[in-house]
TrEMBL record:
Any coiled-coil regions, as ranges: none
Entry-linked Pfam families: YjdM, Zn_Ribbon_YjdM
Protein YjdM C-terminal domain sequence ranges: 50-119
Taxonomic lineage of the native organism: Bacteria, Bacillati, Actinomycetota, Actinomycetes, Kitasatosporales
Family: Belongs to the YjdM family.
Organism listed in the record: Streptomyces klenkii
Alphabetical list of InterPro entries matching this protein: YjdM (IPR004624), YjdM_C (IPR013988), YjdM_N (IPR013987)
Protein name according to UniProt: Alkylphosphonate utilization protein
Stretches assigned to the Protein YjdM N-terminal domain: 4-33
Length: 119
């Protein structure tokens, strides 16, 4: 039954199991998504290529522009379209949030690459 499941990326335990949409290691308690483990196991870097809303490849340190107004919890105005974000950092975030950045007036936050355009 566990023959098709990959070993734990943290402790290399072979006793991983599925719990909903995640894979879980009973030995160290690490949880991860099966899609992330597939890329890591095969060594492909397709997941590391992150593109903006028009298809330009993004890299760490790029400057991007927000293409649509975004609502932000706790802020009455949100982030307006056209806001420039400098010195982005690409991360493997949750729910598609793959850009880590600092926006003036809002502070540190994560954005989706689908709502930005390379400047």
């Amino acid at each position: 039954m566990n023959e098709t499941l990959p070993p734990c990326p943290e402790c290399s335990s072979a006793y991983t199991y599925e719990m909903g949409a995640l894979l879980v290691c009973p030995e160290c308690g690490h949880e991860w998504s099966p899609a992330a483990s597939g890329d890591a196991a095969t060594g492909t870097s397709e997941d590391s290529v992150i593109k903006d809303s028009v298809g330009n490849v993004l890299t760490d340190g790029d400057t991007v522009t927000v293409v649509k107004t975004l609502k932000v919890k706790g802020s009455p105005t949100g982030i307006k379209a056209g806001t420039k974000v400098r010195n982005i950092r690409l991360v493997n975030g949750t729910d598609g949030h793959d850009i880590d950045c600092k926006i003036d007036g809002f502070g540190a936050m994560q954005l989706k690459s689908s709502v930005v355009r390379k400047a």
